[in-house]
Design goal:
The chain has 369 residues and is an alpha+beta fold. The protein is built from eleven helices and nine strands.
Amino acid sequence: MEQNTEKEQISSANETTPNTECNTSTTSQTDVKVYTSEWLKEHTDINGWLTFMLFSVMAGGVLSVILSFINYNSGDSFNAFIGLVDVAMGFVLFCIGGYTLYTFLKRKPNAVFWGCSYMILALVTNLIFLSTSAEDATHQQIKMAGRSTVWSVIWIIYLFRSKKVNQVIPPSFRRITSFDWSALALLILLPITLIFIGLTQIEAQADLHKVEEQKMLSQPLDSLQRTDGKVIFTLPEGFTCEPREVTLDDGSLFTLFDLANEEDNCNASLCSDYDTDMSKANIETYWTNWRDEETDNYESTTVTMGTSQINGSDCVYRVMKYEINSVDVYWHFYLMFNEETDKVFIASIYNTSETATYINELLESVKFQ
């Protein structure tokens, strides 16, 4: 009887062992969670800093596209395609921002990828702006770009270090497909393509300008006519003219003509360039660059300012009066824009007369082609 009992216990123990191993295996398998978007939507919440980040992404995308359209003016840029780059970048950030919000709300495996892509593009865009346009930008624009740069870095770190992000979109659940990379590449290629086309056109236009300038320089001129290859003008009677080459900050050269008439106490500087931007901001840039800073030490008044038409060209003018050592000195400043040739003629004239017939004679003599 005892022997039979021992055999039954041994037999019973042998039968139990496989079942125990089986249960252990089953438990191990159930410990590995296989996430789905539906399960994550039911068991996770988007709140706190993640909500703030998604709001920033969407608001930034909307603001980018709105500002790009507000600031866009086809006449302000030296090339239409280059002018559209900001609009294209605004559109790209808007699309990526909207899709980032959608992927997080739907708990898509590529959510973190698109969120990070948005932040990197925003970071690069702001750094380019700060490095290339800081001199022409307002203090408020620089401040906004700097703040956006800092927040972009913060959000990139947040996406990879946040426990909340890892809970909402677990690392094991994340997937980046070839479609994601292809879509991102196409969006980035949009502004790059515009830049390439614009630069190609600018180079071709520059070559054409050289040909046209050489043609104008080879034209026979009257004794009082002068040219820099862009325009031809006629010296008023009694004026002397001395041309000189001036080097700009970018290394390019242009010809500046210094005119003088001792009898009328007149000195003038004339030059020309390629420009069609008649915006207020551009006009003020010309005014600031040509203004003599020494005149800040004297009392000044604006005599007249406005626009007129001279031989089919738009002329923007301003006349200032300065009292220097009890003598009234006038600064006559003129910008003549010729839309047909995309050129501008600049005349800066100092004299002691509020009006002078030789100024009109000079302006009316200008030929753009």
